[in-house]
Design brief:
There is one protein chain. By secondary structure, the protein is mostly helical. It has a domain of about 250 residues. The chain is built from 15 helices and six strands. Strands 1-6 form a two-stranded antiparallel ribbon. The protein has a two-stranded antiparallel sheet with strand order 2-3. Strands 4-5 form a two-stranded antiparallel ribbon. Helix 2 crosses helix 12, helix 6 crosses helix 11 and helix 13 crosses helix 14. The termini are far apart.
């Protein structure tokens, strides 16, 4: 137990000083860590749907978009510029506080998740993946075209001027100082995202070991058998969709505040595929594996940026650096999946023998066949005839 406390203490110290160390090399590295934490939050939410309940969701980015646009509309001048009535009610602009807009984004995303799950209860596998993929694209196209006849989302131009989060007297968008250290915007948001990720990990950990989590895993393994054992598969699948979508809505609200700008291009199909790849690459249904997969896939493209540049110069500029970077990421993913088919950190196999490999498979192999079977010990004596 002492070792565990020591490990947790060292991990906590590293997480606290990480942005301060990365900031010495530039705020761009801290920003990469911030985006990685957002992807961890998204991967944890998708893991509830895909990892725990076994429901393949390729439209998860739609809930990400719902949360982002909810925050963008309620914390910017978009609605006041479009509707004079709202501008008259809020002459200083519509700047909804975080304790209202973030729960609303989570609630709206969770409701959208349950609405998506309702008509897809009897679908499994590829058919469910196609339906959820279509839902994700519908939301993106909807946001892209909702600028006419009434301009609500500003279409492909996106929403700008989104407010930063300010809570408990701390304005995360402004550079602050503490004990002689400066904390710019990217560092402030790092601690906010880290707190959300730790809270999400705690929620997922408790869910996995609860009755609901065990019921989700029973549905994942065999839905017919789970239903025969009295599990309400309909309500539990809807709960999985709603709970996972809630994580996406919160992550979307954080993304909108962090960027200060959102557009439909940020919520394309590629984002959904990347989030699913994070869950699969790390280890489906295993929280540490999902976190490792999200951190790896979010940071790997940025690290490979420094490799793609020199390779482009070696080719005389004939290769596009962005395409070459995507190629390197794809090759890295293929190599990882070939060497680790169950993920980088898969969940332990159920029913696997936990005895050490040093023990012999059969400890009585050196005995004669008659000696391997012990004699039957009984206190009943046969009658003498």
């Amino acid at each position: 137990m002492k070792l565990n406390k020591t490990t947790l203490t060292i991990g906590a110290v590293v997480l606290l000083i990480l942005p301060l160390i990365a900031g010495q090399f530039g705020n761009a590295w801290v920003r990469i860590i911030d985006i990685a934490l957002l992807y961890v939050l998204l991967a944890l939410g998708l893991n509830i749907v895909v990892g725990f309940a076994g429901l393949l969701d390729l439209g998860y980015v739609a809930f990400y978009a719902v949360g982002a646009y909810m925050f963008g509309l309620l914390a910017s001048s978009q609605l006041t510029d479009t509707f004079p009535g709202i501008a008259a009610m809020f002459p200083h602009g519509l700047h909804t506080p975080w304790w209202v807009v973030i729960p609303l984004g989570a609630l709206l995303a969770g409701t959208a998740g349950m609405l998506l799950g309702a008509p897809t209860l009897k679908l499994r596998g590829d058919y469910l993946a196609i339906v959820t993929l279509g839902f994700g694209e519908i939301v993106r196209v909807f946001m892209n075209n909702l600028d006419a006849p009434i301009n609500i989302t500003n279409g492909p131009k996106g929403i700008t001027g989104i407010d930063d989060i300010s809570m408990f007297g701390v304005h995360f968008g402004k550079t602050g100082s503490f004990m002689g250290l400066e904390f710019p915007k990217v560092t402030n948001y790092y601690y906010l995202f880290l707190a959300l990720v730790l809270f999400a990990i705690m929620v997922c950990y408790r869910l996995e070991r609860s009755r609901i989590g065990r019921a989700w895993m029973a549905i994942r393994e065999d839905e017919i058998a789970a239903k025969a054992m009295g599990i309400n598969t309909r309500n539990l699948k809807l709960l999985a969709f709603g709970m996972g979508a809630t994580f996406g809505g919160v992550a979307g609200a954080m993304f909108a505040s962090f960027q200060g700008f959102i557009s439909p291009e940020s919520f394309s199909l590629q984002e959904s595929v990347i989030i699913v790849a994070m869950v699969v690459l790390g280890g489906i249904g295993h929280l540490p594996g999902v976190i490792v997969g999200a951190l790896l896939l979010s940071a790997l493209p940025e690290v490979l940026r420094y490799i793609a540049g020199p390779l482009q110069q070696l080719s005389g500029g004939r290769l596009d650096a962005s395409i070459l970077r995507q190629l390197l990421v794809a090759l890295a993913m293929i190599g990882i999946m070939l060497s680790r088919p169950r993920g980088l950190w898969p969940s332990p196999e159920h029913g696997k023998d936990s005895t050490p490999d040093t023990l012999p498979v059969s400890p009585h192999m050196h005995l004669a066949p008659g000696e391997q079977i012990p004699p039957v010990v009984t206190h009943i004596k046969p009658d003498a005839q």
